[in-house]
Amino acid sequence: MAKEIRTIGVMTSGGDAPGMNAAIRAVARACAYYNVKCIGFYRGYQGMIEGDYCEMNARSVRNIISQGGTILKSARSEEFRTKEGRKKAMDHLKKLGIDAMVLIGGDGTFRGGQIFSEEFDIPVIGVPGTIDNDISGTNYTIGYDTALNTVIDAIDKIRDTASSHDRLFFIEVMGRDAGFIALNSGVGAGAEEILIPEEDLGLDRLLESLKRSKRSGKSSSIVVVSEGDKIGKNVYELADYVTENLPDYDVRVTVLGHMQRGGSPSCFDRTLASRLCVKAVELLLDGEKNVMVGLIDNKVTATSFDEGLSSEHEINKELLRISDILST
Ligand code: ATP
């Protein structure tokens, strides 16, 4: 029989994402509702290793649902990648009487959690919190919707100035390995071209598309570029290339950078975080372990780490076709 769960630990790890606070709140409140003690660790796995924690109750998470960032802070921990580091973390969990953990983060966080759980036989549940939306086992990750809206807002503003001066803007958005942000914000903001890590559209096509735009009477253009676009040129190199080959264009570059991680979470992200984290606590109380929770076809669903981590969350390439048609 599974051990009774009396104390649950929670932490946020990897890159921060809007909605992580709503997730922490939901874990703390669900624990209070079910009469389970809740302990929050600061700075992800590093805080577990160092025993840096706080006791949480329903009131200690008041007014955080609307705040960006994470009150528990986030970090990447090299030490947790070692067995010695993980042993130190487990020693602190034992000392605090923690029976199970809710881990809010990305795929790296889940990988670490899976190893930790198997090594020390402690139940863990992963909650997908990352702006990248690159986790299979969920249609949406917490923070992605807010990041998209932040990007759209920024592109709209850049478009105002681009059209006033008849300029071509290359706008770099986050996504080293995944093009979700670029693809969806590109379609949503009406970009002329979208460059993503999953698909090499080629430089010739880019030039052709920009020439076609000019011919069709467009005087300004927006090209949205993922950090890790498959063409293999960064946004400044792309701008130089286009300037050399299409001297008629007045080219500018904007890198949106870390602003994409900040801001008050959207209603979608708050609701998603709330649904996933209540489920995470309930699964632990039901004796479930080593799964991630996610939203699939609008149902909160548990997927084993093995399955969630082994497959890629595929982008919807149909959006490239839509973008092509609409940028005519
Ligand atoms: P994001 O998607 O925002 O980058 P992430 O959770 O994928 O978030 P990572 O830096 O990859 O971010 O992972 C977070 C932490 O998880 C790492 O700093 C490390 O402590 C732990 N971790 C990742 N992979 C492993 C692993 N194979 N073994 C042990 N720990 C790991």
From TrEMBL:
Task: Identify the keywords attached in UniProt to this record, alphabetized.
Answer: Allosteric enzyme, ATP-binding, Cytoplasm, Glycolysis, Kinase, Magnesium, Metal-binding, Nucleotide-binding, Transferase
Acetylation is among the record's keywords: no
Q: Name one GO cellular component term.
A: 6-phosphofructokinase complex
| Cofactor dependency | Mg(2+)
> Could you say how this protein's activity is regulated?
Allosterically activated by ADP and other diphosphonucleosides, and allosterically inhibited by phosphoenolpyruvate.
The active site lies at: 132 (proton acceptor)
The residues listed in the UniProt record as binding substrate, with positions renumbered to this chain, are 130-132, 167, 174-176, 227, 252, 258-261
Q: Where does ADP bind?
A: 25-29, 159, 190-192, 218-220
- Establish whether keyword Signal is in the entry: no
Q: Which GO terms describe its biological process?
A: canonical glycolysis; fructose 1,6-bisphosphate metabolic process; fructose 6-phosphate metabolic process
Q: In which pathway does it act?
A: Carbohydrate degradation; glycolysis; D-glyceraldehyde 3-phosphate and glycerone phosphate from D-glucose: step 3/4
Residues that bind Mg(2+), according to the entry?
107
**EC?**
2.7.1.11
**Which residues bind ATP per the record?**
15, 76-77, 106-109
Sequence ranges assigned to domain Phosphofructokinase in this UniProt record: 8-284
**What family does the entry list?**
Belongs to the phosphofructokinase type A (PFKA) family. ATP-dependent PFK group I subfamily. Prokaryotic clade 'B1' sub-subfamily.
Q: What does this protein do?
A: Catalyzes the phosphorylation of D-fructose 6-phosphate to fructose 1,6-bisphosphate by ATP, the first committing step of glycolysis.
Q: How does it assemble?
A: Homotetramer.
Kindly provide the name given to this protein in its UniProt entry. Answer: ATP-dependent 6-phosphofructokinase
Originating gene: pfkA
